[in-house]
Amino acid sequence: MMASLHNALFQLALPEIILVVTALLVLSLDLLVLGKRSLRVRAGIATTLASAGCVIAIVRIVTAAHTANVLDGMLIANPLTQLVQVALLVMAILTLCIAVDSTFTEHVGEFMLIVLLATAGMMFLVASRDVLVIFVALELVSLSLYILTGFDKRSPRSAESALKYFLFGGMSAGFLLYGFSLLYGFSNSTNLARIAQSVQGAPLNPLLVIAMVTTVIGFAFKVAAAPLHFWAPDAYEGAPLPSAAFIASSSKVASFFIFYQVMTLGFAGVEGTAWPHSTAGWVPMLALVAVISMVLGNVAALAQSSVRRLLAYSAIGHAGYMLLAIVSHSGQSLSALIYYVITYGITTLGAFAVVGVVQESTGGDKLDDFSGLSRRSPVLAASLFIFMLSLAGIPPLAGFFGKFYLFLSVLGSAPRPLGLIWLVALALAMSAVSLYYYLQVLKRVYVAAPVEDDGKMEVPWLRQFVIVLLAAATVLFGAAPHLLLKWILLAAGQ
Amino acid sequence: MVAWTIYISFLGAVALLLMPKGNAALARTVALLTALAGFALALTAFAQQRTGEMLTVTRVPWIPSLGIQYHLAADGISLSLVLLTGVIAVAGILFSWNIALRTNEFFAFYLLLIGAVYGVFLSYDLFLLFVFYEIVIIPKYFLIAIWGSTRREYGAMKLALYSFVGSAMVLVGLIAAFVVAGAKSMALGDLAGYAFPLHFQMWAFPLVFVGFAILAGLWPFHTWAPTGHVAAPTAASMLLAGVVMKLGAYGCLRVAMTLFPLGLMPWGFHVLGMGSWRDVFAVLAVIGIVYGAMVALVQRDFKFVIGYSSVSHMGFILLGLMTLNQIGLSGAVLQMVSHGILAGLMFAVVGRMVYDRTHTRDLNALGGFNLSRTIPFAAFAFVVAGMGSMGLPGFSGFVAELMIVIGAWRAFPLLAIVVGVGIVVGVAYIWRAMQKAFFAEPGSAVAHEPLAPISIPEKLGAGILIVASVAVGLYPQMLLKIVVPALNSPLFDGLRKGNWQ
Predict the structure, then answer these.
(1) Residues forming a β-bridge with B60
(2) Hey, is the C-beta of A450 within 8 angstroms of any chain B C-beta?
(3) Which end of chain A is more exposed for a tag (fewer CB within 10 A), N or C?
(4) Identity of the residue in A411, A439, A489 whose CB atom sits nearest the CB atom of B175
(5) Rg of chain B on CA atoms, in Å
(6) Over the stretch B232-256, which tens digit does the pLDDT of each residue have?
(7) What number of C-beta contacts closer than 8 Å exist between A and B?
């Protein structure tokens, strides 16, 4: 009995185990064997090895059994979690490729180790339906991300933002754990479905409300939704670039997926409804958070002069849009959320990669540092053009279809079609606002002349390749959304 | 075949971006050939269209899970506007012959814009239509921000944001319609055939109509138009006034009015004498006609005169749509074509022939150049365009505006009288601008550098536009024979069942 259970657990957790083993291998190889070599060689070997580990993990996920459930939801597998896990691994590889020739640290092995551990944490996170495992996985992810944020030891900003991130994060983790403990008190179980069973019967008592609020606080912090967003602009700006890109993409994907699952599975039966015809529950609460995020993120982004901070505030706005999927919580909105967050991750990763190259060349990420980019590097400029317009939601790019499909699912969600039209109208109004600041960046790139003529920009080939690949994916998933959507719908069983 | 107008423009744009920089002549030639090919395709399709009915061009599944198709189709209305786009595209490139700054990029953005405009006119699936409609925004922004003049970045941003807000309104309406119909199809015919509840149409119609009408320069949402036109380089002003504003009017007719015809029904009560959205928009259109003309009358900047005249003329189109009778509606379509040609010609004269030579657009200063002597061809072209714009018989403007006024007379007699005032003022501001810019007595003889003579491409471009205007003016039947059947097609059943006369 135990043996077969262990075996099942091993089988199911194999991709994560592969990642952890790879991480340790990379670390020991880097410290023990390659210690004396140049930074370039070490980074190259470490990246190759780490990427190979990710690829093996992907292969394992694709070939593994499509549904499994160990220990009553402690760890599960279904096509949807596998799809998200593959997306996370692909983004991890791309993040590693962006990091390969950066110079912010000499601790290459440690950096790779932490990225891989964070990825393993995210994979556990999306594959669990048990609040205890969810919490532990979330902490693994968070702690890794705090370290990644502070990885540039020479930069005081990096340390400052890491500390800020850590303090806020620790507090929100406390809230989350408190909420989870209350849920356990209700239901005598840590399984989401069982929690829902006991929550459903009970009326909304004060303790349940507290559990609900603290859970939302914990996750809203992770997805950088207002009013729990204060860490985001600092972390996006202060962290070393690959870390910032990783926080903005992979961590978003995993957090949103599990946020959706916890709210819809664990709090099933106490949804309530949003305004108008409002009744108490978590839906009106999330609708409020979504509204604040959309408005605050998009309006605050207007005033930014640092492109990284601009991307941070835009991320808050996008978190607001994505929360609408949880507010409407229909089957279709889960597919829409996954499509949105994956394409958003790809686009943001690309945007950060471009910012990184520009920052290395000009020494800053202010708007003016982007002046004349179209003449200094047409390829980078064209890629940034695609990323920014996709974030703004201009067709035929992925961001447009993401928004279209998301808003469609929000409006179409039963029981009252069009009930949430005010939220959609607000979201679209805010995306019109967002066009202004995305165009501010593109204006520098295409309209303004270079501040001083620096000539052509040196772009490392691997990064250029990754950037072009991401731009191509953004166009492809936008012009032919079915390429991605078909897998999501298949996995979701629709 | 006609679908290739879209692809060939996009391919031309890509080719221009990939070509080596620095060879402006080559870039111009490639752009011109691309535009000519598009025009030839448009003309062929136009000549082949006999009945005016909707014919499917391309239809392949695109996003099957939502029932969205890549569905292009053309009827008489679309083909008339596709042809207009072809004419303006060719003329615009001829008037951009002197662009020396980043020539490749200029024409790439230009062709991208043209391709998307073709796409909007040919789309049958509303998702596809919306995709093309939004693609238009971006090249517009860069054409103005990079190559424009007076307050170009402000004008470009204002234009982009107005367009984007308008399209956001349209998107809300389209998604809502898709959800309410629950029909797993975004095809125009399917959605137009669905009987949406009255209360839904009552709010969806104004939302979508205004969303499109922002781009058509509906008063009081017109303020982007004069600033945008003035800031834009000549070719971009021509495209803006010539075809982009028509996209808005086309969307009003093709999408808002066919999907939500009941939105035009009376409310059952009256506010300020207006009893339905139809009355509201008709009044706004007439205010636009008179207001645009009045403001054009007092401008000092030559380009602002034309910019406000566009607002005035676009008011005629929207009024024509609101008459809901056959003569008014077909007049509106005719006016779309006519104003596209004439506004293109006027912006070409003011922006390219005059401003690029004199470097001023101040009407008082222009008198000193004695333009009717130094560049007589510009004076000739402007007089022709002005006569067309005033509505002199023989030019396209006359037929179009006459039909609209007749339609308006039947639908809103009182408003038709006010329109008369607008027409009179319209004669006055053209007369004033013409007199001050071209035929003023040169007072104190100021010494100027001799002006460069009008070049061959300019003459060619102006010639094309003049011929087009006169052809439509003398033989409007050429367009009407396919526009009228298109308006009588089942697609517009909803409108006809209302109060079609």
Answers:
(1) B70
(2) no
(3) N
(4) A411
(5) 22
(6) 898 899 998 889 999 999 999 999 9
(7) 78
A489 with B65: Cβ contact below 8 A: yes
Report CB contact under 8 Å: B175, A408: yes
Instruction: Give me the residue from A428, A439, A494 closest to B171, CB to CB.
Output: A428
Say if A90 falls within a structural domain: no
Identify the CA nearest to B361 among candidates B238, B231, B242.
Answer: B231
Spatial separation of the C-alpha atoms in residues B94 and B110, rounded to whole Å: 12
Quick check: helix, strand or coil at residue B298? coil
Which residues of chain B lie closer than 8 angstroms to A417, CB-CB? 179-180
CA distance A301 to B300: 38
Closest chain B residue by Cα to residue A428: B168
Residues shown for chain B:
501
Cβ separation of A395 and B168 shorter than 8 Å?
no
Domain count, chain A: 1
Is the CB of B191 inside 8 Å of chain A's CB atoms? Answer: no
pLDDT band of residue B390 (cuts 50, 70, 90) is confident
**Which residue from A13, A45, A210 is spatially nearest to A112, judged by alpha carbons?**
A45
Determine whether the interchain pair B171/A425 forms a contact, defined as Cβ–Cβ distance below 8 Å. no
Determine which of A447, A475, A484 to mutate to test the interface with B (most B C-beta atoms within 10 Å). A447
Q: Pick from B130, B172, B180: which is nearest to A425 by CB? A: B172
Among chain A residues, CA nearest to B179: A412
Q: Quickly state the pLDDT bin for B34 (edges 50, 70, 90).
A: very high
Q: Smallest Cα–Cα separation from B233: which of B351, B349, B117?
A: B351
pLDDT tens-place string over residues A366-377: 998 898 888 888
Phi, psi of A300, deg, nearest 5: -70, -30
